[in-house]
UniProtKB/TrEMBL annotation:
It comes from the Bacteria. Residues 18-202 form the Metallo-beta-lactamase domain. Signal peptide: none annotated. SMART domains: Lactamase_B (SM00849). It comes from Conexibacter woesei (strain DSM 14684 / CCUG 47730 / CIP 108061 / JCM 11494 / NBRC 100937 / ID131577). This is Beta-lactamase domain protein. Gene3D superfamilies: Ribonuclease Z/Hydroxyacylglutathione hydrolase-like. InterPro entries: Metallo-B-lactamas, NDM-1-like, RibonucZ/Hydroxyglut_hydro.
Amino acid sequence: MEPIAEGLHLLRGTPRHAVNVYVADGHVVDAGTRWAARRILRQVADLELAGHLVTHAHADHQGASAALARTRGIPVLAGHRDADAIESGQLRDRAPVNPVTRLQLRTWAGGATPVSRRLREGDRVGSFTVLETPGHSPGLISLWRESDRTLLAADVLFGQHPLTGRPGLHEPPAMFTLDPALNRTQIRRLSELRPAVVCFGHGPPSRDPDALARLAASLPS
């Protein structure tokens, strides 16, 4: 695992940074696709885990959630607006419907898993505070730690180009985002925090607050 900040690590994946999974204060944050279960379980085998947090109900974030929760016997946490989709395994209305998202649902999505804790704005998960940041999905949540200005932004924005893989900040593609205009509002909100480090669902961490500010300023109103 790659250390990012105090109590925060990024798990290894192939390709590197393509679909990120983190451990934050003993919580596995997101779970990739259903094919990621083995690599996640192997890397956290020796860790004492407090739970598994799913930032949003998309197939590349909840795919291995059921296997992880069942194998390790840990509770699942999720934003209250996406919790029903995670519990039922029915993700179709969490993203636009198009050939790519239909393929992802068929090949990446995991099964239903109970949600033990439904998170809302201001809730605490370890040393992090929950921020409700809907747009990409209706119930997407981010995690913010003000003491060292560490942000887990999930898919509010990407840390690399979704097609080329080149590092750099981007808003998520509209074909995967239910409400792009609302998501841009969340990017602007997060930029105002001036985070020292930002972690993404896709792409390497960024340690440049000015880059986030520039992206926010460049977005259409």
